[in-house]
From TrEMBL:
Signal peptide, first to last residue: none
Localization, UniProt: Cytoplasm; Endoplasmic reticulum membrane; Nucleus inner membrane
Top-level taxonomic group: Eukaryota
Name of the protein: Delta(14)-sterol reductase LBR
EC class: oxidoreductase
Gene this protein is translated from: Lbr
Length: 614
């Protein structure tokens, strides 16, 4: 096998895909399977290039002196001539020197070259969902006119052109903007571009503390769940009052495990029912789109009906409360077994089906973050199924079981106001997620993260057993909530929900149909991927308004538990940490996808989640 020609960190000249333009780039890595170099352009854009599209800087400089070639090096020696055709340049006669006039005979040829270059760059501006790591529309060199970056001089003209277009494009409301439509139609004209070859390369930047961090999380996450559940069972769940450890044999009961399996497979059956529409997910790295059945809400209705039947026949749902820890252990054991299965099968998965975030080559890291992006058994998508069904619907059932347990244990004819609030708020959240199930297809969990221990444990253990902590807490620690307090908490939850829902809908609708007349008054910054970045509406308020709404709701879920202990506030504290971390991950991905367009968005919208705070 031939060895690689360019080393990591080396500064070379990389061809801009689909054009004959060469830019100064730095080699960041090499994929020896796909034989592709990942290179970073000066504006932060990263692309995968073939070796034939890369040249050393020295060969480039050497070729600059040659005169007969129509290669990029030939063109770089005629910088002044090319600029002469730039729209912003002074009149020809004023700038043309005697020596330049000798080269006049080449003008016709160059005109053709320039035209095709202009097209090449404009082609890069065409909308493409697939090639997200393309030119971001605003190369640094345009603004700085950086000649140290040896860009062929023809680039200047199209760049200026694009910048002008961008400015027109982004700073106007789209309502009456005919020019925008013209630009869109212009873009549609240039479709014959060779797509950039995008093969998932090795994950270089490790998240979650890398190998050591992920190794520790594999133990820390289950330990946290069991600590929280044990604490909740205590009369005094103060932080310093460490709970006694239960006997090991008390943690496992086959009957409980059987019920858990029954639950999981019942949800799988609901998922397989041919009801609900089938939609396509986002394009994968190979351009293929997977199909997903949207029937989570139906699964919820069927589950509710099944639970209704069980209650009618006097099934004691508070069995769940009595064996809560055993259920959590069963779910954890199942998620561990599932993660092992997922990792083993991922070893046979083709390279193109591996997750961009979980392909480091380190066993622990890939096991934790998930090696395979979309593991499927036939058309059964394991990750998509686990994301919203067994855990999320299970959370609502657990809450209901806690409500019934509270009534039984405290001999109540109706649940406490605090329990009603917690149950209703969280029910709304789950129903909303299931109703808008399609939106999950564009989340990081589906598009970036593989299916491994992190999501398997998160979906099947963390969500149902930690998110139901407030209801679990209220069973053992009754809390009185006055009506005015209940009203205030309800308003808070509604405000959070309103921000969360409208922000998510605004973005989802914009992604689905940017030309939607309902969104006509929103402004956006265009990017060369074809997607815009909203800069007005919720997404102009902070960069993650949906997280803000989610956090406000999390607070409203904890407040009915009073202020005696911090335990029921675990969720909101953890959730802030989770979303701050998630926001940082998302920023990083968006910076890679959109380069300077993203930076420009950050300048326009400086706060990430909390206005004027963070
Ligand atoms: P988001 O819905 O926040 O989406 C982030 C993506 O939106 C970015 O990657 C980018 O993707 C796009 N985007 C960013 N800025 C803009 C903009 N200005 N205009 C248009 N598009 C933009 O992703 P998450 O998956 O993190 O969250 C989804 C929901 O799930 C949130 O409401 C969150 O609160 C919730 N959530 C809940 C959790 C829980 O445990 N309860 C856990 C995690 C999330 P692109 O440009 O590629 O479209």
């Amino acid at each position: 096998m031939p060895s690689r020609k360019f080393a990591d960190g080396e500064v070379v000249m990389g061809r801009w895909p689909g054009s004959v333009l060469y830019y100064e780039v730095q080699v960041t890595s090499y994929d020896d399977v796909a034989h592709l170099y990942t290179v970073k352009y000066k504006d932060g854009t990263e692309l995968a290039l073939k070796e034939s599209d890369i040249r050393s800087q020295s060969s480039f400089k050497h070729r600059k002196s040659q005169s007969s070639s129509s290669s990029p090096s030939r063109r770089s020696s005629s910088r002044s001539r090319s600029r002469s055709r730039s729209p912003g340049r002074p009149a020809k006669g004023r700038r043309r020197s005697a020596s330049q006039s000798r080269e006049h005979k080449d003008d016709k040829k160059k005109t053709i070259q320039e035209t095709s270059l202009a097209l090449a760059v404009l082609v890069l501006f065409k909308p493409s969902e697939n090639n997200t790591k393309r030119y971001n529309g605003e190369p640094e060199s345009t603004e700085k006119n950086d000649t140290s970056c040896i860009i062929l001089e023809q680039k200047l003209k199209p760049d200026l052109e694009i910048k002008r277009v961008l400015e027109q494009y982004s700073l106007r409301s789209r309502k009456d903007d005919k020019k925008t439509e013209e630009i869109f139609s212009e873009k549609k004209t240039f479709v014959a571009v060779k797509p950039i070859e995008k093969v998932p390369s090795k994950t270089k930047e490790l998240e979650f503390g890398g190998r050591i961090g992920t190794f520790m999380l594999i133990f820390l996450l289950p330990a946290t769940v069991f600590y929280l559940l044990l604490m909740c069972k205590q009369d005094d769940p103060s932080l310093l009052n460490f709970p006694p450890l239960p006997a090991l044999e008390s943690l496992w009961e086959w009957r409980v495990f059987g019920i858990f399996l029954l639950w999981f497979f019942l949800q799988a059956v609901f998922y397989l029912l041919p009801i609900g529409k089938v939609v396509e997910g986002l394009p994968l790295s190979n351009g293929r789109k997977l199909q997903y059945r949207i029937n989570g809400f139906y699964a919820f209705i069927l589950t509710a009906a099944a639970i209704g039947v069980l209650l009618y026949f006097q099934f004691e749902l508070h069995y769940l409360y009595d064996h809560f820890m055993q259920f959590a252990v069963s779910a954890a054991a199942f998620s561990l077994a599932l993660s092992i299965y997922l990792y083993v099968r991922s070893l046979k998965a083709p390279e193109e089906e591996l997750a961009p975030g979980g392909n480091s080559g380190y066993f622990i890291y890939d096991f934790f973050t998930g090696h395979e992006l979309n593991p499927r058994i036939g058309s059964f998508d394991l990750k998509y199924f686990c994301e919203l069904r067994p855990g999320l619907i299970g959370w609502v059932i657990i809450n209901l079981a806690m409500l019934l347990a509270e009534m039984k244990i405290h001999n109540l004819s109706m649940p406490s106001l605090a329990m009603i609030l917690v149950n209703s708020f969280q029910l709304l959240y789950v129903v909303d997620a299931l109703w808008n199930e399609e939106a999950v297809l564009t989340t990081m969990d589906i598009t970036h993260d593989g299916f491994g221990f992190m999501l398997a444990f998160g979906d099947l253990v963390w969500v149902p057993f930690v998110y139901s902590l407030q209801a679990f807490y209220l069973v053992g620690h009754p809390t009185t909530v006055t009506w005015p307090a209940a009203a205030a908490i309800t308003v808070l939850n509604c405000v959070g929900y309103y921000i969360f829902r409208s922000a998510n809908s605004q973005k989802n609708n914009f992604r689905r149909n940017p030309a939607d007349p309902k969104l006509a008054n929103l402004k956006f910054i265009p990017t060369a991927t074809g997607k815009g970045l909203l800069v007005t509406g919720w997404w102009g308020f902070v960069r993650h308004p949906n997280y803000l709404g989610d956090i406000i709701m999390a607070l409203a879920w904890s407040l009915p538990c009073g202020f005696n202990h911090i335990l029921p506030y675990f969720y909101v504290i953890y959730f802030i940490c989770l979303l701050v971390h998630r926001e940082a991950r998302d920023e990083h991905h968006c910076k890679q996808k959109y380069g300077l367009a993203w930076e420009r968005y950050c300048q326009r919208v400086p706060y990430r989640i909390f206005p004027y705070i963070y």
